[in-house]
Design goal:
276 residues; alpha+beta; Alpha-Beta Plaits; 6-stranded antiparallel β-sheet; 5-stranded antiparallel β-sheet; 13 strands; globular
Length: 276
Amino acid sequence: MASLIYDEKMLLDFYNTVFPGTDPFYTEFFCLAARKKYMTEEQKRSINLGDTCMMFKSILKEHDERKFLSKIHQADASADYFTDRDGNYIPKDCIVFYLNLNRTNVFKAIREFKSLLADWEYDVATSLEFNNNNKRDNIGKQLKTIQNNLLKSFQEPKNTEGDWLDIDCDIGTDFSALEYKHILSDNIGTKNVYVLSTHGGCHILISKKAVSEFNKNLALICPREEMKNYVMTPDRILNFVNGLMQDKDIKEIKLNQNLAVPLPGTMQGGFPVSFV
């Protein structure tokens, strides 16, 4: 089947913009996910899939664009062979690349994973103590998912730290991502705002450092008692974006709490995700 990758240069431009440096105690996380909403009605009837089925979870040991691109190609090559709960092959055109915008703190991820292991050890001990065969069998099944659970700890939003706010805009077809990038850049700064054009609208990425810098500068020129009226917060940024798009067919505009975005340079339900 056709590749989910259509623009390697855009992939790398996005990667190097979102993750400009490296740190030994942080890692990047990406995955493939099958999305039911991109299936045809016939596919929905024949494929046994939840709303989202995550596959090919992966972390990168170091910030290296060649290794990143290699991982993306490995995931793309495997996308033809993922199966649903009944062993049916999942249509490739409903599979999407997702990347966490913010890096995972390795120490936080390992702490969460150790907590899970401690729970499993306790369950094993009690199943043996009370000779509970059913519980023992269930624990055996859980232990076989250990790799997936480790990666889940790296995926978990509460274990991520980074430089970006993400406003997820679900908008109708009458929409120009480039237009709003220019407007937001004029207000926040050209290097501080990026827009991803996606199947359902866009993701607006805003530098948290730029927001912090704005508030620091504001403190230098604004009386303390008036600061609360002008300080830039995520909610105020969200309201500003809402105001910009009030004439559009808006389904939903929200702060993306999990910070996972479709990867520019790849296909999303037949739509080419782009880095504006």
